[in-house]
Design a protein that fits this description.
The protein is mainly alpha-helical and 133 residues long. It has four helices and two strands; from the N terminus they run αββααα. The protein is flat. The two termini are 35 Å apart.
């Protein structure tokens, strides 16, 4: 499993390196590479993904009913999801522009979806822990 993860990370790095190396702006409208807006949106999406993963793991733990039933993980996922939602909404408010202009609107929307997914999974875990408790 670790070998697959490492090879996936290496592949992603090799695919991302030419994009970063050829970062330039043409005609002032289209941004190629890692612009500040895209970087912000990418960080939001990564934290949203972490929230969704933690929410999924806490939901799986609540099924096993070991320890505290995943309650701590669900609280962490809920807080991370809320932070992602706030930052992504601020990002969409600050960076105006269309898709493909380098402002990271698509990444911010993906971050909102990931944050909501993490919050929904955490809510399911908390509801399950209240029913069982």
């Amino acid at each position: 499993m670790k070998l697959k993860l490492v090879s996936f990370v290496v592949l992603c790095a090799l695919l991302l390196a030419p994009t970063i190396a050829s970062a330039e702006v043409t005609n002032g409208n289209v941004g190629y590479g890692l612009t500040p807006g895209r970087l912000w949106a990418t960080m939001d999406a990564v934290v949203g993904l972490i929230s969704a993963v933690i929410g999924g793991l806490s939901l799986a733990r609540s099924v096993r009913r070991t320890g505290n039933g995943g309650r701590n993980g669900s609280i962490v996922a809920m807080v991370l999801g809320l932070i992602v939602l706030v930052y992504a909404m601020v990002h969409l408010t600050i960076f105006t522009g269309d898709f493909g202009t380098g402002v990271g609107r698509a990444g911010a929307i993906i971050a909102i979806v990931m944050g909501l997914t993490g919050m929904i999974l955490a809510g399911l875990t908390l509801a399950r822990s209240l029913r069982a408790g």
